[in-house]
Design goal:
Elements: E1 3-5, H1 20-28, E2 34-39, H2 42-56, E3 63-64, H3 69-74, H4 77-91, E4 95-100, H5 102-105, H6 111-121, E5 130-134, H7 143-158, E6 167-174, H8 181-193, E7 197-200, H9 204-207, H10 226-230, E8 235-241, H11 246-256, E9 260-263, H12 269-283, H13 289-309, E10 313-317, H14 320-332, E11 336-342, E12 357-360, H15 363-369, E13 375-378, H16 383-389, E14 393-395, H17 413-430, H18 445-448
Parallel strand pairs: 1-12, 2-3, 2-4, 4-5, 6-7, 6-8, 8-9, 10-11, 10-13, 11-12, 13-14
Helix pairs in contact: 1-7, 7-11, 13-17
């Protein structure tokens, strides 16, 4: 069990984490016809918007209540009502997702109560639009908690109990924030190959997959439909991916009675085998031939990559669930976790990280711990630390703004794990020093063995 060491600095140097409101907005973007709204100052929204646009290279429908100093002092209920009604009239969204920021959370505003009052007073004007609130202060938690809170709020506000009927082919899948567009598409394809009908919430593969609509839209196009969310009570089983998705899975079970099974990771042979066994049990079908073939390809990739990864020292900085996902995979391939840095120390996933110490900190902490590492694994903001240390960087997580197509890289199930092995092995090989030839006639002792 890893020992979690808390943050002991008064300021972040080269910050690692992204905020809760950004995580909540990210999750709302996975619902069809949605528009996230950050309830706070315009600067908070601009910062989140810049990161999302740079990461996805897409136009992101993100709005703000644009709280100024006076609104922060007297309260933001009027500004929130104005924003909701304006967005309803101009863009006609099917969902408005309110993400609170420190500006309103610091003065302990009852935003959920304000929204309920607005919905009662303006019921006729808001017909056809759901308004959901996620309490996500910037000063606490990180992107992982924001994503989890938004998904929980959507389920509690929209899903309807339906304990009378269960569709034996319909399942609910709650993916974590760290799954890419390609991961979610691969999840759906795999579930469908077993004859199952998955409802994925949130489904960013439909909204942030890079497809271009015929005309510009001010709201999300694609993603989980509200009708599917309302019908979650008719699913037979819920699959939650990542420890931070336990909370929404429990909310769904409490509301509808749908049982859930939690997977902390779907990367690595053993984790994927367990997932496939669950799908086979739910569908009562044998594993499809293409899935079996993918498993054999992964086994071959593991044999090819093990000799390159064995004994390598890896330094990782990421959110708790992604930290566990990657460190568990690296150690299974024979590598050693030399440094582990994360954003928040409250996740139970940190206890399972295969490292002696997990440091809650920033990228400067990672840099100080990674001097002897063979590889640094973090998002694009880690490139300066990697360059100063002369250590190669494998980019994962959010944001990735200096590479194109990051959302189309699979990282889970047999095919995704195989591709991660290939990427990692290629980085290691590209940064190995070539052997220095000795004097003519001499023989390297290691080669002679």
């Amino acid at each position: 069990m890893a020992r979690v060491v808390s943050q002991n600095k008064s300021a972040a140097v080269n910050p690692l984490k992204s905020s809760q409101p950004l995580g909540a907005a990210f999750a709302f973007l996975g619902v069809d016809g949605a528009i996230p709204v950050l309830h706070g100052s315009q600067g908070c929204t601009s910062f989140a918007l810049a990161l999302l646009v740079r990461h996805f290279n897409e136009a992101i429908p993100l709005q703000t209540t644009a709280m100024n100093e006076a609104a922060i002092i007297v309260g933001g209920a009027d500004r929130l009502e104005e924003a909701i009604l304006s967005l309803k009239a101009r863009t006609r969204p099917r969902l408005i997702g309110i993400c609170t920021t420190a500006s309103v959370e610091a003065r302990d505003e009852d935003v959920a109560g304000d929204v309920e009052n607005i919905k009662r007073r303006r019921a006729m004007e808001l017909v056809g639009t759901e308004v959901v609130v996620a309490n996500t202060p910037d000063f606490d938690g990180a992107i992982e908690e924001g994503w989890s809170k938004a998904v929980t709020a959507v389920i509690e506000s929209i899903a309807r109990p339906d304990k009378q009927y269960r569709n034996p082919r319909k399942i609910a899948i709650l993916p974590g924030w760290n799954l890419t567009v390609a991961d979610i598409e691969h999840l759906r394809e795999t579930a469908v190959s077993f004859g199952l009908d998955p409802v994925i919430l949130p489904d960013v593969s439909g909204a942030l997959d890079g497809s271009i609509p015929e005309e510009w839209m001010p709201i999300t196009y694609g993603g989980t439909k509200l009708k599917e969310i309302r019908g979650l009570g008719a699913t037979m089983q819920c699959i939650a991916i990542g420890e931070h998705m336990r909370r929404p899975a429990e909310a769904l079970q409490r509301l509808t009675g749908v049982p859930y099974v939690l997977f902390r990771s779907l990367t690595g042979l053993e984790n994927v085998d367990r997932f496939i066994r669950v799908l086979a049990a739910m569908s009562r079908k044998q594993t499809p031939l293409n899935v079996r073939r993918n498993r054999m390809q992964l086994q071959d990739a593991m044999l090819d990559g093990h000799s390159h990864m064995a004994g390598k020292k890896i330094a990782i900085a990421s959110e708790p669930d992604q930290l566990f996902q990657l460190s568990d995979f690296f150690t299974a391939m024979g590598a050693e976790i030399a440094a582990a840095v994360t954003t928040t120390g409250t996740s139970k996933a940190l206890e399972m990280v295969p490292a002696k110490i997990v440091k809650v900190g920033d990228l400067s902490d990672l840099e100080s711990l990674a001097a002897t590492a063979d590889l640094i694994v973090t998002h694009s903001h880690g490139r300066e630390a990697a360059r100063r240390l002369g250590v190669p960087l494998m980019r994962v997580g959010f944001p990735m703004f200096d590479r194109v197509g990051s959302q189309h890289k699979p990282t889970i199930l047999y095919r995704g794990t195989r591709d991660v092995i290939f990427e990692l092995t290629n980085i290691i090989q590209a940064n190995q020093s070539p052997p220095t030839p000795g004097p003519r006639g001499s023989t390297d002792r290691r080669e002679s063995q």
